[in-house]
Each structure stands twice: as structure tokens, then as C-alpha cells.
Amino acid sequence: MNVNQHSSHSDHDPFGLNSFSRGLYIGGAWRPAAGEGRIEVIDPSTEAVIASVPDATVKDAAAAVEAAASAAESWRETPPRKRSEILRRCFELMVERSELLARLISLENGKALRDARGEVAYAAEFFRWNAEEAVRISGEFGIAPAGGNRIVVDYQPIGICVLITPWNFPAAMATRKIAPALAAGCTVILKPASETPLTAYALAALYEEAGVPPGVVNVMTTSTPGPVIAAMLADPRVRKLSFTGSTGVGRTLLAEAAKNVISCSMELGGNAPFIVFDDADIDAAIEGLMVAKMRNAGEACTAANRIYVQSGIHDVFAEKFTRRMSALKVGPGVDPDTECGPMITRKAVEKIERLVADAVSRGGHVLCGGRTLAGRGFFYPPTVLVDVPPASDMGCEEIFGPVAPLYRFESEADVIAAANGTEYGLAAYIYTRDIGRGMRVASKVEAGMIALNRGLVSDPAAPFGGVKQSGLGREGGQHHGIAEFMEAKYIATSF
Questions:
Q1: Mean pLDDT in the chain?
Q2: pTM of the model
Q3: How does DSSP classify residue 472?
């Protein structure tokens, strides 16, 4: 099967890519990397080079920390209302430029344009939400139980924050960190993924236009993240690390941050169960699964990874679900008709191929897809498997692609044990008409977020994060997101 490709963008600049790759953004200025190296940006739909961005060095890291430190006091002392108005303007500009941002995301990430549009809307909401929360940061006042003194608690910005974001949601993962950090009064250094840096730089220009002062947000790309990040974390002025990415990298960063006892927020890997009971509305469950599995072509940490269907409806569910998956149109992300875009890299496709081959070798059966598509671009078709042994690689690792393994289960106790049989605990999905059962199972499944009769769990107003090896801390929510970027200061006084 061949995928129709769109024309290469390497010989012209219809998206204004050059303006998004003009330099590192440090201290409110665009500048080349100290070593003047460049990182090529690849369109995963065509494998063409569409732009290049600066390759930051340890020297650039030091400059970014210095810029953030120089801006820290002024931003910290900026009245909350003023910070709120700037964040609100960031939201408004993102909405105004939403189509440009969505197309940029589709081009460098490959995700379907409809998914990219959804991401921009979601990403912008973090600025609107935190604009409202910035003016509601309050302290505490009380009398000590012994009556000897008063207890005053003040909440202050934690300090300079290093933010590291992945390639799968290049806008949303950045704003989910930047917005609460700025609302709290912190200055930040963002290190976006080198696969999708253009969105981060486009947003940096937007923040500047919205009135974010120089040095408050700094953006730098690098092909050597290890030494660059280590250099920033070694600076005693850096007090916060917020990372979204794999559990393996998260463990490494935690060890590095421990050297200077730096506060860490970690949003790590997932292995989400999607549980469908016999009494569920099958059509509603399939619609929910299409969202939970296929949003961003499965390249999401919250993606349904293990689909458990009770035996009474398993075969009917598998048949209907396979029809839906088979009908999805695969193509370039920027094509408005595309429903499943390419994977981010060739390496990502090779991982999927390995997982599918292992599942089939262990007795799994492919109902649709299962073979890499011919032609240029990092495409893999929507795939459904049944009879996959739970101990297969696919059952234990994040798939991060459009592959859905279905597992048959008999009892509530069995599926809870299976759902919890992983080191991860980010998200889980449950479908049942019995709300009592749904709440009971939700309380026993080990995950930081549960979607009950819903295929979408993320919301800027809700705390996002996992348990076990899926992370530390929360992002978003009524106060959780800002709290990650603040320190409580206790003052004892008598009068």
C-alpha cells in the first residue's frame, strides 16, 4: 500500500519556517549557538529537511540561566494582575494564530491536522486558565494549637525553572509548564525536543508579542541534552526541573537533579488499560477507544495501550473496532483529509514493527494492518490484534503508535489485576453502564487519571500526572499546577 505524499517544502518556505528557526531565544534576543551548529528538522511525511535550528552548547546553557536570573526579580515583583494580563494575551494570540500553529505542528510532527488543531486549542487553554489563577495565589493565617504564636504561610516563586518537553505535543507540553510557572512568578528555560523545535520558537515570538519581558522565557534546542541540561542543573540558581518524556530518561534526570536537591516534576511513560465490560454501550466504547487510541496516531503517553474486553462482547467488539480502524485514511499530516499521520521517525516505526512481530510470534493474530506502508515517510497503518499474550513485549511496553491489542477477560477481579500488572500508572479508561461498578473499579486501578465512559481524560482544569513509574507531581488543575512552581514559607509571629 502506497501513501500519497505532499510536495517537499525544502525548496520554498510557505509556512514561514525561516522565521521560526532564526536562532536560540535567550534574554529576549535571537542568537546563534556558541558553536554555530545546526539541527535539521525533518518532515516525517516526506523525510525531507524543512528547516534547521541552532544546536546549543554548555556555553549557551550558561547564558540562558544568566538571562533567566537577570529577569527573575523583576518578574517576581510584577503584580499578579499584570502577569495575568500578559498570560491572557498569550491565550488570545494563540487563538488568533491557531491555524498557522496547527499547520506548523502537522508539518514538523506529522500528526493529522485535525489533531494539531485540537492540540493548539488545548495548549492555549493553559494560558487562559493560569491567567485566572495567577491573581488567586493566597497564603494562610492561623493560630498555633498551643496558642503561643500565629502561623503565617506565604507562597513564593520557587526560582529559575528548566523545562524539558517531548515531540508528540510540541505546543501543549510547553504551555502546560510555562503558563503556571509564569503565573507563579518564575522565569524559565525551555528545552524542546529537537524533532519538533519550530513550534517552540514560534511560540517564543508570540510570548514576546504578548508582553512577556526579556529573559522570562528562554528557548534553546540542542542535540546534546545530557551535558547541556546537567550544566543548567549544576547552577545553584536553578531550583526546578519539570520534564515530560520517557521513564528511563526521567530516572536519569532525577539522579542529576538530586546532586543539587532540585525540586522535580516528572510526567513519564504510560501503559494505559482500556477496560470494556459486557454491559457497556459497545458503540460508545468504540468511539471512546478511537479517541483514546488514535489521537495523535497513538503517539501519546495517555494512549490506550492494553484493551481489555469482557468475553461476552469481545468478538463483536473486535469486529466493529476493526472496521473503524481499517477505514481510517493514512496520509501526510497537513492533508485535511488525513486521519492517521506518520510516526515521528524511522526508529519509531521500527519499534512498532518489533512489537507486532513479537506479538504474532507468540500467537497473536492481526485483524487489520500489521505491515509497514511502502513509500517515503514514516507511516504505519492502523492495526488491530487479538490473542496477544499479556507477557508479550506489546503488553509490557508503550506502543506509541496506531496499534491496538485486544485482550479477553472474564471477571472484574481478573481485569483489575491485569490492569495493575505494570510498573506504569498514568491513565486508565473504563466503560460500563453500571456507575457503581465503574467507580469501584476506578478506585482500585492504579493510575493517576481515570476516564469513566470517556475516551479523553486531559483537561487544563484537572490535575494531570501519574503514579508508580509514571511520574511525580501534577500539572494543571485548580491549584496543583501552580503549586509545583512555588515554595511555602512559614513565618511564626506573636502580637
A1: 95
A2: 0.95
A3: E
